[in-house]
């Protein structure tokens, strides 16, 4: 099973150190989710698809939903 997982992050320009820290923290969190979803896809593809669908519903990101669910279905 080969899985390619893409997380999209839209960030604005960091105007101060607090924004820079928040963006860095978000990047680290996105990477952790990426690695977790990648590993879950290897172990249990159905669970990965469910996780992607739930994440999409929670975040209300329809573009991400299509990508994540398509990837998890592979």
How do the strands and helices of this protein lay out in sequence?
Elements: H1 17-43, H2 45-59, H3 62-73
Helix pairs in contact: 1-2, 2-3
Description:
It is a single chain. The chain has 74 residues and is an all-alpha fold. The chain is built from three helices and no strands. The chain is elongated, with a radius of gyration of 14 Å. It starts with 16 loop residues before the first helix and ends with a helix. It has a domain at 39-74. The protein has helices spanning 17-43, 45-59, 62-73.
The residue fraction in helices comes out at: over 70%
From the spread of the alpha carbons, the general shape counts as: elongated
What's the helix count?
3
Distance between the terminal alpha carbons, to the nearest Å?
8 Å
Name the beta content range: under 5%
| Rg over alpha carbons | 14 Å
Report the count of strand segments: 0
Q: What low-confidence regions span 5 or more consecutive residues with pLDDT below 50?
A: none
Biggest beta sheet attributes: none
Alpha-beta classification: mainly alpha
Average residue-wise pLDDT: 68
Order of helices and strands: HHH
């Amino acid at each position: 099973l080969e899985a390619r997982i893409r997380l999209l992050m839209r960030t604005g320009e960091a105007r101060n150190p607090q924004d820079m820290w928040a963006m860095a923290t978000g990047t680290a969190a996105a990477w952790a989710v990426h690695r977790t979803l990648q590993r879950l896809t290897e172990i249990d593809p159905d669970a990965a698809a469910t996780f992607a669908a739930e994440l999409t519903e929670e975040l209300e990101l329809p573009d991400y939903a299509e990508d994540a669910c398509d990837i998890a279905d592979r």
